[in-house]
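REQUEST FORM: STRUCTURE PREDICTION
Request ID: SP-0412
Submitted by: Lab K.M.
Chain count: 1
Length (residues): 706
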Amino acid sequence: MKQHLDAIFRPRSIAVIGASNKRGSIGHATLANIFRAEFRGKVFPVNPTHEVLHSVKAYSTVLDVPDAVDLAVVIVPKQFVPATLRQCGEKGVRGAVVISAGFSEVGGEGKTLERELVDIVREYNMRLVGPNCFGVVNTDPEVSLNCTFGKTFPRVGNVGFITQSGAMGEAIMNQAEQLGIGFSKIASIGNKADISSNDVLEYFKDDPKTDIILLYLENFGNPRNFTSIAREVSQTKPIVAVKSGRTILGAMAASSHTGALGGLDVAVDALFEQTGVMRVDTVEQLFDVAMTLSRQPIPKGNRVVVVTNAGGPGILATDALVNYGMEMPSLTPATVKELKTFSSADASFSNPMDMVAGAGATEFFKTLNVVKKDKSYDSIMAIFVPPVTVDELEVARNIYAALADTDKTVQACFMGAGEQSLGIRYLQDHSIPVYIFPEAAAKALAIIQEHRHWLKLPKGKVKNFKVDADRVREIVAANLDRGNTAIVGADAMQILDAYGIQVAGYHYAYTIKEAVVVARELGYPVVMKVNTPPIVHKTEAGGVLVDLRSESEVKSAFTKLRKRVGTLKAGERFSVVMQEMVTGTVETVIGMTTDPSFGPLIMFGLGGIYVEVMKDVAFRTIPLTAQRARRMIKSLRSYPLLTGFRGTAPVDLSVIEETLLRVSQLVRDFHCLSEIDLNPFIVSASRERCRVVDARLIIKDESRCN
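STATUS: Completed
RESULT:
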């Protein structure tokens, strides 16, 4: 793969097939961009109706080119692309970038035509970028490649960019130029019929010119491959991603609690969280994070000091930083003492440090020169609101002069300066990121801080427990023989028990008399649930009655439930399940749902009826490690309820962690399971009182149960 991608990103020769002298055409713009970038290799325009293009000899076909060709850029009508690629294969071309559109993105015959392209490149051992793409860029001065039809050739930098959208590639290149962000390589992969974002991501991993990677994704080709690649790359090169398409209509068909909650783009969030990819919501945030990452070191911690000449922006920065989980320690007494030797008496010697409106270049230099030595901080944010009387370029020069030698992460905010500001341009050219508003700088810093935290996390190993898988196979087979694809009741509990998951006992009663006897044996209070006929969500259907404290209440409950279920099917006999009612505990839920692209997702959250109301749940892809399970639990907003809240005893978190790992192993061992719902999973301070009260497992693919 590397050799093929070298042929695409570092070619020694390029054939532009479909080159044109018609201004405004893609063939004209692409060829012009290659010349304008001063590509260091040979360029061969290919057009059957022209002998010369851009003052360079043209050839009728790529087969007529007298030299070897590494890269073919194809810009011909879609119906001619297959024949063109076949000629490239015969010529020995190693890589092709097909800019032409009209393939799988239009459906129907386009999909068939795209499959033909893939067959051709496989036949000739070529690799293909596209079709329907914007092209590729390599700013390395030794290559200087711009095989795109855009208006901008990006400045040289250390950012690699992968985009599925050609239009987004053009827009991002233009905006990056305004913000002073430089790129190493850009790949617009279009329909990714052959080369995917995973392939390019792995290529960027070993690229010495690329330090940061930006992704614009609309879908994943192979999420499981992405997981292993991205996790490895993130260890040394930060990855920032925008993933569009946040809704999954398929979730409408999910029948369990877990499935219904799994449709809100949670698979992508889980994947990015586990691989260390920094997910941002907008392209604007992509730039915000890239500005700091490409110019500054990752902060050593989350402590920030703000230095400003205006109180309002300082307050905005403080609110944003604190809300995003950053810390703003006070200035140390030694720092304050030194600042007071030259600062205005009206200055605020706190954090934010407000030098007041009259502060200019000298004040910024002196203050930042003192603050940078304070070991209480990991990052410095300098906010400047330019008064009419102050030279903003001089302020920028002094900010840089004061902070050029610090190892702290530095950000600047020039409010109201305008995009053409000489001060902003000066700081950008001297590797200091500049933001128009402090909230954007604070958000970017917080996202990077999360990545730093991820880097420090122990990765852990997948644990395998001693389980009774044969027993589970027998239960599954017995249910399938009866035509059951939803395993509930005692069978579901036995499966969990076989995997060492603590469950509450199931006691059946078919008559009022039996219910009274069971209640007496269990000890009051008890819970009664409808067992026959089977009901998916018993609580919503009124099929659960709790806190029954006497014989009369048990009799009344049995009668009520019998009336609620109404007429039974032929052969059915009404029955209930009786369980001991456990108090002084917290209800949680553990589940699994299967995403069509990402595979199984494990869920944990607040349980009972609140799982769908509060939606305070966390998802992770499998396999889980102990460290990931622990972080999953702590990510909940309701986590304080588990650790002891207002005098309540903390629950045994180790039981939750272990149960998540055992469910993960069950899912890994039985690929036929498409959904699991353990709700409620009662947790308590006592390990013995932690147990699954109700469970449901759904089988989708019977052939995968063996």
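NOTES: The longest helix spans residues 438-456.
Reviewed by: T.R.
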